[in-house]
Amino acid sequence: MMGENIMYNTKTIDLSIDFENGVKQASNYIKKDELVAFPTETVYGLGANAFSGDAVAKIFKAKGRPQDNPLIVHVDSIEMASKLAYINDDARKILEEFWPGPFTAVLKKKDIVPAGVTAGLDSVGIRMPSSDAMLEVIKRTRCPIAAPSANKSGSPSPTEAYHVENDLVGRLPLILDGGSCKYGVESTVCDLTTHIPLVLRPGAITVEQIKELTGSVEVSPNILTPLLSNEKPTSPGMKYKHYAPHADVFVIKGEKKSLVAKTNEMYDEDIANGDKPVIFCFKKDVAYFGSRNVMIQGGNDNINEVAKYLFKNLRDIDNLGYTKVYFESLPTTGMGLAVMNRIIRAAGFKLILVK
Ligand code: TXA
Ligand code: MG
Question: Which of 51, 64, 135, 251 is most solvent-facing, going by the fewest CB within 10 Å?
Fold first, then answer.
């Protein structure tokens, strides 16, 4: 059954040399209810005309995505968003501040949004991205674009065009290559249908920024902890395994000296057992780990850089054949919350606490 989903001769167009051609071809495909992968400032998205149930169904098929996980709809303006959902004054104020940008608002949907987009929910997630190509295609086609991350369901989100190629070649006609994504983690998803804004997924628009604007914000309890088997997720995406490389990932938390000792001890045990371990660390910390294998996850304590390369590093772990990964727990403030939300899922919630 290998070839079942291989239906297209996938082309990649480099936007840095062929922007106009890329946007033109993408617009034609979107109008014909075909799929296009777009770069955005967060991650690459797998886009389709959000008004077409047929086009949207192709997204689920290409990704192997569970039908009950709703999609984010991308728009070019608050005005376009207001055709899809009800936007009150409080919500409008938030959108005016954070759009265009890495912020997805969950709003009460209007009937025009096909049920396939929202997986039958009465709310819809909407975002205005700041990526030129996607905005231009939305403007030219007048179609809002439904787009989840352009990875195979379950693997890390793509932050480079070749990640999309690796996961989806043959399953769509066109990939637009816009280089590395600026933030590297998906947008903040925030429910604005509740009395107080509720962050469902942390991202580059931080909890602190939302609080500063609105005065109060709540954070879903499942951002850093697993759902219990009888718990209903506030966002369907929470219940699925995510970002997981084949390797076993461990998050280690504690005071630096004992953390380093524990990491090195586990690493050396792995070597003795014939495993292939690697330690994620900051440049400034390399010396702590002697001659052990490390993967540099950014400059000194720069959490934005950790975020930007996180998914690429998770993909590289598999490509390089590592079987165990050790990741130092980071503070959960600002962008740190987004990074920890992703890595703790990649680790299957395996957290090792040291004194
Ligand atoms: O940055 C991003 O958000 C990227 C780019 C392409 O825009 N998109 C993205 O989409 O990450 P996806 O499908 O991988 O993640 C969408 C998340 C899922 O966890 C989904 O459950 C949640 O948003 N979501 C979408 N609509 C929702 C709704 N109406 N209520 C609650 N959660 C919703
Ligand atoms: Mg995704």
Answer: 64
Q: What is the dihedral of CA 43, 46, 52, 55, to 10 degrees?
A: -170
Angle in degrees, CA 127, 158, 47, rounded to 5: 45
Torsion sign (Cα): 220, 223, 224, 227: positive
Which ligand 1 atom is nearest residue 109's CA?
29
Cα dihedral: 189, 180, 137, 21 (round 10): -170
Task: Enter the tokens of residue 286.
Answer: 């390399």
The CA 233 to ligand 2 mean position distance, Å, reads 16
CA-nearest of 174, 168, 154, 160 to 35 is: 174
Q: Which of 75, 165, 60 is nearest to 119 (CA)?
A: 60
Residue of 181, 189, 201 to mutate, ligand 1, most atoms within 8 A of C-beta:
189
Task: Retrieve residue 295's tokens.
Answer: 């993967």
Tens digit of pLDDT for each residue in 114-145? 999 999 999 999 999 999 999 999 999 999 99
Entry pTM: 0.95
Query: What are the residues facing 280 on neighbouring strands?
Result: 295, 327
Q: Are 297 and 280 in contact (CB under 8 A)?
A: yes
Please state the rounded mean pLDDT for residues 90-107. 98
Rounded to the nearest whole angstrom, what is the distance from the C-alpha of residue 149 to the centroid of ligand 2?
Answer: 4
List, chain by chain if needed, residues with CB within 6 Å of any ligand 1 atom: 40, 42-43, 45, 69-72, 102, 104, 106, 118, 121, 123-125, 127, 147-149, 186-187, 189, 200-201, 235-237
